[in-house]
Amino acid sequence: MSRLVVVSNRLPLGDNPSGGLVVALQDALRQSGGLWIGFSGEHEGMTSTQLVFHEGAAFQRAAFDLSPEDYDSYYLGFSNSVLWPALHGRTDLMRIVPEYLEGYRRVNAHIADLMIPHLREDDRIWVQDYQLFPLASELRKRSVTCRIGFFLHIPFPGPAECAALPNPTELLDWVSEYDLVGFQAERDRLNFMESARQLGDIEQVEGDVIRLSGRTLQARVFPIGIDTASFMTEARNAREEDRMRSLTGAQMMIGVDRLDYSKGIPQRFRAFQLLLENNPDLLEKVAFLQIAPPTRKAVSAYRDIREETEHLAGRINGEFATVNWTPIRYIHRPIPRHELAGLYRQARIGLVTPLADGMNLVAKEYVAAQDVSDPGVLILSRFAGAAETMQEALIINPHDPWELAEAMAQAIQMSANERRRRHSALLRDVVEHDVNWWSSEYLAALG
Ligand code: ADP
Ligand code: G6P
User: Fold this and answer.
1) Tell me, what's the pLDDT at 246?
2) Paired strand residues for 379
3) Do 402 and 189 contact (CB within 8 A), yes or no?
4) Ligand 2 center from residue 119 Cα (angstroms)
C-alpha cells in the first residue's frame, strides 16, 4: 500500500484543536497512518528552509515555520482576507492587495520545495483546503507525477463570488492540476461546475470526470464526518458536567463555533432575544451557552465580529438577567473535547446557524453526544453543508430571526417521542457516514 501524505495549512502540535479540518484529519490519520505536513503556527522568525519532523504513535508530522511577512500575506492576507470571505459569500469583506496574492503563490511554491526531498514515487498526496489551492501545480512543476488529490473543506462559490476574486481563471487552473477534487456538498460541486463553465474552460467527459483547463480529473462530493464512536463514548462518560443541569435548573441551548462572521452568532443572539421578548414564561427557564474561541484575531473583520458578539451578549443580559439567572453565558476560549461532549449532552437544543459553512462538524458532534433515550433537538441552518443530509433537524434560515426564534420555541416544547424520532434518523447518518467512511471513500477514489 502506498504511503499517504496529507498537507494542510494547520498542523496540530498542541492540544485542543478547534476547527473542523484538524479534528477530522487527526481522526482519519490515526486510522491510516502516514505523514502529515503543515504550518507549525510559528511566525515570528524566518520561513523554514526544511521540514521539522515530530514522531507520533500513529503517524508522522512534519512542520514548517513562516516569517511575519509570509504569514501576513499568505495566511492573514490572501487565505483569510480574500479567499475565506469570497468563498463564504462575503465579498464585501474581501481586502484585495497585490502583495497578498504574491505571498500566497510564493508560500505554496516554497511548501512544494520543502516537500520534494521527502516524497516517494508512489506516495498518494492529499492536499487540504483553500490555503493550498496552488500546491499541486507547484508540485507538478517540480516533476511530481504521483496521484494528488484536493479536498475543499469550505463552500465553493458560484460565478458571482468567483468573479470577484482577483484571479478566477488562475484558481480554476490550480484546481485542474489535481487528479481528484472533493467537495463537502452537492451544492459546492454544482457551483464549481457553473463557475468553471462561466469563467474557465471545462467540459463534462462522463459522470464525475471532467476536462478542466486541458487536464482530465474527477470532481466528486465526499461529505465529511466525525469520529462518531469515540465521541459517543466521550459524551456518555462525561459525568462531571452532569452537574451543569442541576446548576442551571433551566433548559440549556448550546452554540459552539470559532468566533467567525460566517457562523451567524449575532443572528442567533438576536433570535434568542426575540424568544425571550415573545415568551415571558421562558424567563429563568432557558439558558444559552455560547462557546466561541478566538480565531484569526489579526484580521479586522474578526475583531469586529468579536465586538458585535460581546456587545449583544452584554445588552441582552443587561435587559433580561435576574439575580438568579444569566440568559447568555459566553466563553471565549477553547475547551477540552471531553468537556465539550458533556456539554452537548446536557443541552436540550443545539444551535448551528451559520450563514455559510462547508459542512459544520458541530452539528454532527451534537447529535452523537445525545442520550438516545432523552435526546435534544438540533436547529440547523440550511446554509450548512450538513443540511443536505441532516434533514430531520429543524432546518432554518438564519437570516430570519422570527423563524429562528419560532424554531427555538418549537424545540423547547417538542415531545420526547418526536425528539427521539428525529434524533434516531440523524444519528443513523452520523454513525454510517463517519470520518473513517469519509477518508476511505476519498482515498479509494484517489486510487
Ligand atoms: P470550522 O471548521 O469552520 O471551525 P466546524 O463546525 O466544522 O467549523 O468544526 C469546528 C470544530 O472545532 C468542531 O470539532 C468543534 O468541536 C471544535 N471547536 C469549536 N469550538 C471549540 C471550543 N471552544 N473548544 C474546543 N473545540 C472547539
Ligand atoms: C476551517 C477551515 C480550516 C481551518 C480551520 C481553523 O475549518 O476549513 O482550513 O484550519 O477553520 O482556522 P485556522 O485559520 O485557525 O486554521
Assistant:
1) 46
2) 351, 394
3) no
4) 25
Low-confidence ranges of the chain (pLDDT < 70): 15-19, 239-249
Q: Verify whether residue 153 is a known catalytic residue.
A: yes
Find the angle CA(179)-CA(180)-CA(185) to the nearest 5 degrees: 160
Strand order in the sheet with 394-396: 328-331, 286-291, 251-256, 349-352, 377-381, 394-396
The active-site residue out of 88, 110, 153, 433 is 153
What is the C-alpha separation between 427 and 369, in angstroms, rounded? 10
- The grid coordinates listed for 70 are 509570509
**What are the structural domains of the chain?**
4-221 (3.40.50.2000), 228-432 (3.40.50.2000)
List of residues 6+ apart from 10 with CB closer than 8 A = 17, 19, 21, 22, 38, 39
Listed residue (152, 165, 154, 121) closest to 139, CA to CA: 121
The answer to whether the CB of 312 falls within 8 A of the CB of 266 is yes
Question: How far is ligand 2, taken at its centre, from the CA of residue 19, in Å?
Answer: 5
- pLDDT tens across 207-256, in order? 999 999 999 999 999 999 999 999 999 999 986 545 455 455 679 999 99
Return d(Cα 8, Cα 357) in angstroms, integer. Answer: 19
DSSP per position, 225-275:
---HHHHHHHHHT--GGGHHHHHH-SEEEEEE--S-GGG-HHHHHHHHHHH
Ligand nearest the Cα of residue 334 is: 1
Q: Whose CA is nearest to atom 24 of ligand 1?
A: 334
Cα angle 428, 250, 263; round to 5: 55
Closest CA to 367 of 246, 242, 226, 177: 226
Residue among 8, 66, 153, 257 to mutate when testing ligand 2 (max atoms within 8 A of CB): 153
Closest C-alpha among 311, 323, 322, 302 to residue 270: 311
Quick one: which H or E segment has residue 32?
helix 20-32
| CA 295 and chain centroid, separation | 12
Active site residue 357: yes
Q: Which residue has the cell 430531520?
A: 392
Closest to 312 (Cα-Cα) out of 290, 297, 293, 295? 290
pTM: 0.97
